[in-house]
Amino acid sequence: METVAVDIDLAALKRNMALIAGKAPQSRIIAVVKANAYGHGSVACARAMDEYAAGYAVARLEEALELREAGIKKPIIMLGGCASAGDLDEVAQQDISVTAHSFAMLEELKAFCKSRPEIRLRVWCQVNIGMQRLGFNEDEAERAMAEIRAFPGFVHPVGMMAHLSCSDEAALKAYHESQLAAFKRMSRFAEGPLCLANSAGILYYPETCTEFVRPGIIQYGISPTLGKRGTDFGLTPVMTFRTVVYAVRDLKPGDAVGYGASWVADRPTRIAVLGAGYADGYPRSMPNGSPVYLNGAVVHTVGHVCMDMMFAELGPDLKAAPGDTAELWGRHVSVEALAERVGTIPYELLTRPTRRARYCYHSE
Ligand SMILES: *Cc1c(COP(=O)(O)O)cnc(C)c1O
Questions:
Q1: Whose CA is nearest to atom 4 of ligand 1?
Q2: Is the CB of residue 214 below 6 angstroms from any atom belonging to ligand 1?
């Protein structure tokens, strides 16, 4: 029996994809599977999404190559920059799309194509609509697209993409509108399809759903915005992060639990020692009183999380025995709520489980 496991519900993944397709009925889906599909396993997820995905998006070359090695033939876009000519060889060979996001990058792409006249590169033009990460600025977009359009080494037409930096809370609506307006202005120069919406765009701003959309976290059933749960939108969490009970101990008042004695029993009670710790991806900063689901009940963490173990208080009544399963997050313990407790976002928690976890894929 595995001590720590990540269960991936591929049927839930497919239901989420169907829901996304319904929310963006005019768009084709580029499924974002970067960072090992947000910790869910990129190859298995990409295969399960096949029916819905027109292509996939990753951050790094190695992530793209992993999909190609697994026999995935659909378009793959590398969202991040591509730094070296050596990478471009591999990119071209494996028919991976890159984004031209600056004049320096564009020069690199052109130089590569000129050195390899037999090759034509697949390129998206990325424009900056306010996040200041990657992309041509508004005053550069016309010239960039003119250069791209005129260059025979690229596969034409070249699409245009941009990324929404905060399409979430109502308070940010004005900012969202300025980003959307900037994209609309720059899209006048586009020669190919447009791709703008991320998860939040798809959920909140149908007008950002252009020819292509790039959902990420909602595919995995999780809310892109604070204060909401994926389930609020009809999504189902795909990942269950679970461990086992190692030991059950009775405590008397005054017994202190864990390193630093940060939690002290104030009554006779019982705790379970669980077989996962921060080296498995459960945050050490998780405060006392955080939920864990065990034997049909929500119990609460006590004491500091150790490297390989942690503690949950069972109280006097809940029965538990070594080997019982404890859900750290999943259907019963929302990863969104845990992220809020430690001042982060669910994206970070989902990508935390380490190679110590066993990945278990279920289709039903
Ligand atoms: C990660 C990423 C996405 C997906 O974002 P979600 O918020 O998970 O939907 C889309 N586009 C780009 C450029 C990204 O980096």
A1: 216
A2: yes
- Which of 49, 163, 167, 219 maximizes ligand 1 atoms within 8 Å of its Cβ, making it the mutation to test the pocket? 163
Any atom of ligand 1 within 6 Å of the Cβ of 32: yes
Of 223, 251, 270, the last residue of a domain is: 223
Q: How many domains is the chain built from? A: 2
Length of the chain in terms of residues written: 364
CATH number of the domain to which 85 belongs = 3.20.20.10
In a domain, 340, yes or no: no
Assess if residue 216 is contained within a domain.
Answer: yes
Q: How far apart are the C-alpha atoms of 330 and 206, rounded to whole Å?
A: 28
**Cα 32 to ligand 1 centroid, rounded to whole Å:** 7
343 Cα–ligand 1 center, Å = 20
Query: In terms of pTM, does the model score above 0.90?
Result: yes
- Quote the DSSP letter at residue 360: E
What's the alpha-carbon Rg for the chain, to the nearest Å? Answer: 23
Same domain, 202 and 252: no
Query: 3-class SS at 327?
Result: strand
Q: How does pLDDT run across 120-156, given as a tens digit for each residue?
A: 999 999 999 888 889 999 999 999 999 999 999 999 9
